[in-house]
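Hi C.,

You asked whether I'd gotten around to modeling the 283-residue construct. I have! Everything is below, sequence then structure, no commentary in between.
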Amino acid sequence: MSVFCPGLCIASLILLVTGVLGQTPGNFRKIVEKRLKEGKMRFADVCPVDTDSAAKRIFSDYGAIFVSASNNPLPPRCIFDSEDEVSAFHANLAAETQNIGGTAVTLQRDAMAALISAREDATKSGLSITPRGGTTASARTFGDTVRLWNSRFLPGLDHWVAAGKITKKDADAARSSSIPEQIKKVLEWEQHGLYFSKDLSKSILYSVAAPGASQHIFMLALDVEQYSNASVRKILADHGWFQTVKSDMPHFTYLGVKENELPSLGLKPVDVGGQKFWIPNVD
């Protein structure tokens, strides 16, 4: 038997397209600008997306931390330039270290409390939530992000030189250039299909963060071993932890809010491989 409901069915379809119960994501940039202003910071100083192509990409891919409900100060930069800048930022954070699964995990205190609660709920269901990748699964230094970048950047250069897609001269120039220039050059090459992820199939930023831009620097991120388990993802979401870097499957970010609040923070859901990522609505 067919059911005819012209107005109601069309309205329902629109709601599904625009978001859960009509929750169209807000403008992420405007929301962040407002939060920074409340913290007496200028958006252009923190993340100069209008003048710096790398900053624009970083804000789009990693910016979710700027709407975290963490009680700690907002990040003063979207891309830190040195170890000294990162150390100065870390000195102002209320952080905590716990031994989880034999690995030292360091997070902002409220993020750690939420993780511990999530682990307790997981245990009740016969599940585990543990870090993936050793101590760099949580907090990272500037040097950590440089080493991880080089683990993708340098092999990628060698591959594309051998494939005849990048000249040795250009590769040598990229190796010796500053990190900000390396980021810009890699993103430029990727626009032409020369990718630098571990398997060379996607952007390097979906494999590792640009130096100084990792959410792990802000102590609000954790790489989780059980990321592929839907029940674990649900438990983490119930405690404010969400996947926010598209295609980085193990990576979770502490936002500290309920999932139905995310659109109001300017985040939109994107499905990748059957997993839901909440990414900045900057289109």
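If it helps when you're writing up: Residues 18-140+214-280 form one domain.

Thanks,
B.
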